[in-house]
Design brief:
Two copies of one chain form a homodimer. Chain A has 312 residues and is α/β, with parallel strands linked by helices. Chain A has a domain at 35-129: Helicase, Ruva Protein, domain 3, CATH 1.10.8. The first copy, chain A, has 13 helices and 14 strands. The first copy, chain A, has helices at residues 8-21, 46-55, 73-80, 91-105, 110-121, 148-154, 178-183, 200-204, 208-214, 235-241, 248-254, 272-277, 292-310; strands at residues 2-6, 27-31, 37-39, 42-44, 126-129, 136-141, 144-147, 163-167, 187-190, 218-222, 225-226, 229-230, 261-265, 281-285. Chain A has a seven-stranded parallel sheet with strand order 5-2-1-9-10-13-14, with helices on both faces. In chain A, strand 6 and strand 7 form a beta hairpin. Chain A is globular, with a radius of gyration of 18 Å. The interface between A and B is medium-sized, with 27 and 27 residues.
């Protein structure tokens, strides 16, 4: 049994690769919901949707987010009607949010609504939001607080970040199945997601850190930092803001006490000593997921790492 | 100053014709909202939208309802996600309902939300919902109660109708401006809409019937019944259910005590005596609005009727 903690689009690609080599009933995916937003009155879960679409084979390859071959006719009209348009929902994508909002309004939890969307889209993996309770990632900047999507999409992660907090996480419970899937897994993988804003909210829910520590599973993370910079997005800025080096070693520090192994891109082989100083083993391979083959190869490497570690 | 009471798609065509010959600041349109529905969590106002789209030049000519050149990609996905799909919202149309729902959620009234949609779409006429309060047209059939859209769209007006009621109308107030626009008008026109389910809900709001009676305006209705049958929709069945003849005379009876003149299609010239027995004058012209020219001609005829009646 494998459980992946993930968020963001890199995480979705990684999960897709895993799904190609692991039977669906053996793969549980726990997803960050700190980026969720109310947009046009709809409950939008960007990270859940990226994984949902990736697993259904519908994630747009051109954009890396949203639904394949989508159009933006409704969005164009919303803008002309005076609504905000900086967060882009396609016409096909919209259905996911309308349906989720409808299911939530009917009294279902986010976990139940997600299961229903999975069923309807033929996704057989267990896809779990980290929590059914509202948790909001708030990014503080010198100009004030921003929701994560305001910071990331509207402001294109240009503002300098003074702190990040996960509002509501103290009072939140993990969604049903999340802790069990971590504690009873044979392998827990942390996707190459932003350690602060994608994995951080999951780790902030009471019980998750303890679950990772108590689990007999190997815990293996993939570094989203390659060659001293994030592959995409603001992971570098976020690590720096939290006082970590912008390097694989910084990622290892950030996950100190939680992971057994950090998978790092081959170009960072020199970082082994610092990673081991952070009490994780280092395993090196190509982590740049440019093609489907890259994704599958990285997933295979992650599984092979478990076997290697077991015989260590 | 001209005020039109309207509902349905025939009414929208009629209003479009009027708007071609009357300056926008002189034309107020009061619209049935008894057909409004919560669809996919959105506040949909089919009759307001038909008039809004007609006045903005965006009403689909092919379909007679909805937005011109619309697509149904979101609807197709909603169906595949297990949502109901019998009420069809196009991708462009969706924006209207999303925006309206958003404006209502922000605390605006339906009147204010409608004004905002008009502004954004360049519609300069005053477009008023009959009420800001919820009023629901309920159609009783031998198999049970249906909302108007369930009866009309889902069941294609096949069930036999035992009664129609307008739930909430007793407690509803007319929207701001509605009564004034009726009482202070020089002319009140009742569009060729279903007298029972399109105009009936407007007349059921306390004050509207008295307003029509007290107004010094001429009140002129256009019969939606031509040659013993409704031009479109269930107006015939509805008149019969209420005990009226399915004829221009039946329409005159239905509006007895409210109208001065009934405009009737030329093929029904024989109905003059019965219409006059219902205490309305009859005026005959082509009322079939097949082309834009027909619509404009009917509007001109309605205005000319006022002048003729004034010198009577």
């Amino acid at each position: 049994m494998i459980t992946v903690l993930t968020g963001g689009t890199g995480g979705a690609k990684f999960v897709w690769g895993l799904a190609q080599i692991v039977p669906p009933e053996q793969l549980t995916v726990v997803v960050n919901t700190g980026d969720d937003l109310n947009w046009w009155g709809l409950h939008v879960s960007p990270d859940l949707d990226s994984v949902l679409y990736a697993l259904a084979g519908k994630l747009s390859r051109d954009r890396g987010w949203g639904y394949e071959a989508d159009s933006f006719r409704c969005l164009d009209r919303m803008r002309s009607l005076g609504a905000d348009g900086w967060f882009q929902l396609g016409d096909l994508d919209l259905a996911t949010h309308l349906r989720r909002t409808q299911l939530l309004a009917s009294g279902k939890t986010l976990t139940e609504a997600t299961a229903e969307l999975c069923r309807a889209m033929g996704v057989k993996n267990r896809l779990l939001p980290m929590s059914d309770d509202p948790v909001q990632t708030v990014v503080s900047t010198p100009e004030g607080d921003l929701s994560f999507q305001e910071y990331f999409v509207r402001e294109r992660w240009k503002p300098s970040v003074t702190s990040v907090r996960f509002e509501g996480s103290d009072q939140a419970s993990t969604a049903p199945g999340v802790l069990q899937s971590i504690i009873h897994a044979d392998l827990v993988l942390i996707a190459p997601s932003n350690p602060v804003t994608s994995i951080g909210p999951i780790l902030a829910i009471p019980g998750v850190r303890d679950g990772l520590r108590c689990s007999t599973a190997q815990v293996i993370a993939v570094s989203p930092i390659v060659g001293g910079a994030a592959v995409t997005g603001p992971a570098g800025d976020m690590l720096k803001m939290r006082g970590f080096a912008v390097s694989a070693a910084g990622v290892a520090e950030c996950y100190r006490d939680l992971i057994d192994v950090l998978i790092v891109d081959s170009q960072d082989e020199g970082s082994r000593p610092q990673i081991e100083a952070a009490e994780a083993h280092a395993a090196f391979t190509n982590t740049m997921m440019k093609s489907d083959d890259d994704r599958i190869a990285l997933a295979k490497f992650a599984l092979a790492t478990v076997a290697r570690e077991a015989t260590r």
